[in-house]
Fold each of these.
Amino acid sequence: MIQPAFLSTLQVAKLPGGQWRLLAPLRYQSTVLGAHLEVPTGFLTDLASVPRLPLAFLLAGDSAHEAAVVHDHLYQVRRCTRAQADAVLAEAMAVTGEPAWRRWLMWSAVRTGGWWAWRTGPRRYSRLLNYQIQDRRVEPREQA
């Protein structure tokens, strides 16, 4: 059995409009799926979609970026079921050391409210593949 682990670091550039573009592939091996996953260079993500409400953002904002990218990719390419994608999110958050309470909070949020993102994932992915950067100024950011 493979052990869950990130096999590369998250390297992203900030784009206008709250999106981020991967500058290098993000590789992850998942016990939940029993597979190695690769999010390709150029993939667009909003990282973790946490409401900007003060308490919600305080508890879960600006965290679990690597796990969120893998989760976004699974929702968009539909390589597994929604329940499996959400389980991979929790698994990947554990790998990066997120505390159990935050893993539960974020997993519960996607199980409760992620149906819309799951339903529209392939359409959003198709749109993002055709996304053209109007403002070429990007800020590289590597996640530790």
Amino acid sequence: MGTDPTPGWYRKALCKGQTELFYTDEPGRPSSVRLAVPLAVCAACPVKEDCLTDALARREPYGIWGGTTPRQRSRMLGVDLSTIRDLSSETWRRYGRKADG
């Protein structure tokens, strides 16, 4: 039997079980209205920093992580995360959500 790949911090995350809020199927950049709820959840989350650190380490190109959008993480890393497409299986494996929709 395999080990659980989900990081320990995720068990304390306020977003746990609400992945649909943190990913959008909307084309283009999500509206500020669409982002308001997930960003509010992140703002109150006790593991926000761990979440962001994990997303940056994985160069996560999808969703809201640690209170940041993919565009914000791209700027932090100095790379264009929108060109990365091979991490969807990693997101699915670790968090139970297909990153590409």
Amino acid sequence: MTGRLTPGFPDIYEIWVYLSGSPLLALILTLGAYQIGVIVYERAKRHPLANPVLIAIVLVAAAITLIDMPYPKYFEGAQFVHFLLGTATVSLAAPIYKGLSAMRGRILPLLAALVAGGVTSIASAVGLARLLGADSTIVGGFIAKSVTAPIAMGIAERIGASSGTGSFSQALAGAGVAGIQQHRALLSS
């Protein structure tokens, strides 16, 4: 038996060897995991704990662990998504600029809240990670948890920490905040 499913098509093993050596596998894995996350999110009636990004991170981490793919090799293929995340983050500047007039006179309280919230978030995440005995690359990944995913990944890479931990903790924090907001909305209605 040759292992071919259909005459004229390549062997499954040949396809796997080609994909596992190509950055295409990481891209397909990333987009597929996110699509599964979106499906779960929709079926969970958009419950914040079914965050599609969080689900995708868990699925990708499990998959690259199972197939024994080193993270740097995975990131080679996922760089395209990383680039698009950065572009999407920059595009958020337009609505902020349009709403700038509404923020005039409130800039100092907003900046104070931003700094206090950021420092508290980072200190609590890093402190908890150290308390639980996490190693320095994991602790470093938590430093960037209070910013957007592409910025978190960039910060983590710069300080030599785990960029996956940075984006995972950022997504987890986002799911927690969304859950609290949904709970408050239900209590106030």
Amino acid sequence: MALSPADLAAAESAAAAEASPVVLVLMGVSGSGKSTIALELKRVLGWKFQEGDDLHPPANVEKMRAGRPLTDADRLPWLQSVARWVDDRLAAHEPGIITCSDLKRAYRDITVGNRAGVRLVYLKGDEQVIHDRIILRQHQYMPPTLLHSQLETLEEPTPDERPIVVTVHETVGETVLEILRHLAAPA
């Protein structure tokens, strides 16, 4: 049963008060809701937020606009930029939230790795649900045609990565509440 807006707000506030300050890396394929969920987490927690897509080099953006999937070599400078942002938050002892598709384990080894104080949040979704979301939104350079290649590339996080796995079929508020409850629980 869905919570009323007032009950959801109260539950979010209670869970946010218990959330351990960490750096969150929200991962998932395009259309899984990374930016939407991250912005709502930022609103509730008051933590710094970085849209990972904004860290892509211009060549990557142009390639994606043209509907061409990125190679691992294309992604490396972007992943290194994401990792620098995470490291900057950790060095400053500041919590934060960053979005990054992080589709492969090798990518997550760069962005998350064994860093203490970083939690991976995997926004998991059914292909049809995500496809329907992509069709309804406007993205600056990620066409819906690239969803299939992202799903083919996706290596779901394994338990040793200690991911928070959230299925993205619920409302934004319910998804955020689930993440907050995970953050409040012992890791």
